[in-house]
Amino acid sequence: MIWAERNKSFHGGIVRDPFAVYEASLVFYKDFFDLCPSPKLPRHVANCCWNPPEGDLLKLNVDGACCVADRKMGLGAVVRNANGELMGAMAKPVIGCLSPKAFETLAMIAGCRMAIDAGFTRLIIESDCLEVINAVNRSKFDMSMEGELIEELKELLRRFVSVALQHQPRTCNFVAHQLAKFALSCNETCYWMEEGPSWLHSYLQNDLCSLHSIEE
Hints:
By secondary structure, the chain is α/β, with parallel strands linked by helices.
């Protein structure tokens, strides 16, 4: 991408603003990272779908999105119980474009804050960003550019009675991803507790239908 802009300049073409090139490269990296297969994933990952938590645990799914053209980020989070029922959801717009690791961390921070405010103390947290999960699981201070955000997230996680982080592919994180994309069109944060808009319930129902079809 940078080399292409260099060639445009060399041959007298129109060169994009360096900041726009940087932001576009971040989105490209995020898409590339999401598509890279993990050696730990089973071969039937294409059939993977969201799975409900067990017992009295709740599951929090989070995701982030970025629109380079609007220089805006969207944070999505959804909490469901063992029956797949909606307990809480959030779509939060944030002005600016940060690295994929940063806005995925911000999505988890926002989701955790929503869960804490709602009194949810026993959680399984799922994200499709393995980089963030690995960073949080390390005991040492994160020395990357996103280190302060990672440490803030670690502090929030200590406030739960029980919490576990899990990596899942995008197919298992669909509802949170749609909430993050919806946030890009919002001017303020949207919260829903137990009841949500019809489009959100349609996504939730699709997850349950996908789960039942795989079980059959």
